[in-house]
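Loading example: each entry is read as two labelled lines plus one structure line.
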Amino acid sequence: MISMVLFGFGNVGQQLYKVFKKKKVNILQVYSPSMTPIEKKGTKFINDLAQVEAADIYIVAINDDAINNFSSSLPFENALVVHTSGSASIESIVSKNRRGVFYPLQTFSKDQKVKWKDIPICIEAENEADLSILKELGNLLSRKVVVINSEQRKQLHLGAVWVNNFSNHLFHLADDFLGDVNLDFNLLKPLILETAKKIKNISPAEAQTGPARRNDQETITNHLALLKNPNHKELYDLLTKSIREKFK
Amino acid sequence: MISMVLFGFGNVGQQLYKVFKKKKVNILQVYSPSMTPIEKKGTKFINDLAQVEAADIYIVAINDDAINNFSSSLPFENALVVHTSGSASIESIVSKNRRGVFYPLQTFSKDQKVKWKDIPICIEAENEADLSILKELGNLLSRKVVVINSEQRKQLHLGAVWVNNFSNHLFHLADDFLGDVNLDFNLLKPLILETAKKIKNISPAEAQTGPARRNDQETITNHLALLKNPNHKELYDLLTKSIREKFK
């Protein structure tokens, strides 16, 4: 069985810990600077990098912008070190180790129940042997393990920002608008869920509906009049134009 | 049992027909100008308004901008006539009949399996007796029947445009971006579904993550550089600023 050390114990680190434990992966250690040292079910929780043991793979699940410095502070060389970031390049890990990426394409919260088998795991490595280890590890968690290079991963991460971060922000705006007129945001939740489910079987282009799609200028004008914040007006206008551009 | 005539047989009309039939509502007739006349399971499909029979309620499930003219062409008076639109006012039905609204807050496709019990039904009427009929009818379909006036309904519909039409457009854009670099849009689908599910238990404000939320300027700059279309750059920029505004 693959032996592993996990660096970082935030949302991604904790979810990886949970699922790898479940899959009986040999997690030797979990490192976090703020960790209280303890041993639990065969895994040592440590806060001192000097104590890091030899392992088949080191997973760095920390903030994107900290990966580079952290990887240079690792007190070992020629080991397989991978990060879990969608946007950081494989080169953000310093080259004294064998580098790789193990990016689960999902949004994680600490207490969320994650259905790992559906989550795409995007892997990248500098040689075939390391790629095999990542594949083996990925296959333990998911039915969808894909080899993707850093350039493609950046595009994928950009796509994830549009569909996750930006969509969620639209939910946030709608929540505010409804709150302003004492309407319950819960009324929109079935629609939000159906919007996501709809594209399981048809493309987003086919699923597109609404006043912009129909070029229903009267409703568009009415909606713009309802919006008070000029930034929201601008955003509504730009999204409407962007839809029009696709269907003109 | 309530007797009903249904005008219009598009997405909404067909879904209402299916579910009211299932609930044993007495649908006397379904009218559509292009309908081939036939009788099926006790319902007459007609294409001639002169043949419309007396019923407890007339449901007008047609395009928003056609409601007014259509309602004035109805060859009867003082009957309960309701439309199913989110954005049209109750006054878009001409006043020779008793007016109302029966708006199921959901996006419908023809072949989709609709879970009616979770769909909010927003009702409005000019008097209590008619409101009771709409409530009774709504309760047959859904656990969530809410009385909402035309002003509130407009806000709700605007919210629906943000969370459904605009989110779906973001999916559409991501689909395009990934296609441009030969990546499979299916990779993003589990993330899209989780984005919708996440706000079941936490607010969109709490669920917000991503470079804009973290004010991660490096990633934002990289993303803007990846976008080729100036409209998409502008949209990315505006959405990012809108998120920053919420969390500054």
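The radius of gyration of chain A is 22 Å.
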